[in-house]
Amino acid sequence: MKKTTILFLLMTAFFMQAHAQSSQNQQYLQYIAQWRDVVVDNQRRFGIPASIIMAQALLESAAGSSELATRANNHFGIKCTTDWTGKTYLKDDDKKDDCFRVYKNASQSFDDHAVFLQRSRYQPLFEIAVEDYEGWAYGLKKCGYATDPKYPQKLIKLIQDYHLDKLTDKNWETVCNTGTNTASNRPVVVRKTEPIAVITSNPEPEYQEPRTAKEEKQLFLLTHKPQKCNGVKYILAQEGDTYASVAFCLNIKERDLREQNDALGRTLQAGDRIYLAKKKTQAPKEKTLMWVTPGESLWAVCQRECVQLKKVQQYNNFDPSIRILKTRQAIYLRKPPKK
Description:
Elements: H1 3-46, H2 50-61, H3 67-72, E1 88-91, E2 98-101, H4 106-116, H5 133-142, H6 151-161, H7 172-178, E3 180-181, E4 186-187, H8 213-223, E5 227-229, E6 232-236, H9 243-250, H10 254-260, E7 273-275, E8 289-292, E9 296-297, H11 298-305, H12 309-315, E10 324-325, E11 329-332
Antiparallel strand pairs: 1-2, 3-4, 5-6, 6-7, 8-11, 9-10
């Protein structure tokens, strides 16, 4: 064979490979842009790094083009468990006809992935900082998420190639289009000269089935663990929560939620207790009389002890205008004994 023919074949093969690589990169970038807001929101709500969520989705679903993704809307390769009651899809994996979960849509798959990682076997991961994507990648393998011995390295490569650790930055697209691969200090092959067509640029985005009220409440209570005080369940408000957003997630009226927390006209602060039912009319007997410190809020005392504010005002003959206790004093949290 002539040298010119060999050279021509080599050049053809090179350009074909480069074209295939470019097409794959564009597919991956479009997928990242489509699901970026979802993974960033799941990082905020569940504490799972957005970079890890996206890398797993890219790897497990081949950017949404895998058999599981197209036929089962399963973007994370999550298999059936004993508590799974939904539809199933059989596919050869670690063994013949492995059972995989089927979802109504891809969005439901992202939700279930966040819930799935709340299982006890994955709890050690949440001791790792969200910025430490390498720790999470190796931690997922150690906790048994995947059997592939190179699973951590594959996740890390995707994160570094596509700068997924910068997903929460507003300028991620700029970094990805013009940046360099920090792992190998070489130009990123996904450099583009024109903006990427993303789903959010469409004035009428693709329809996604909304969560049911039950699903919304279950997801919310995963990130807001209920506790008890005086026999009543409560949760702690987190950064960004409002009475309106909490009421929506719990599927109750905002005014009802405010009234059972004596919070009409109040702004919710991170760390505030939010009772999920009406507070008690009085404290336990051992807390009939309680000492308070100067400057303490009467509302804060009532929230801490789970007693209705109006009742405490009655027990102590307080004027309704009193909000701050100015002196160190003992107040009744139950009906005072008759003199």
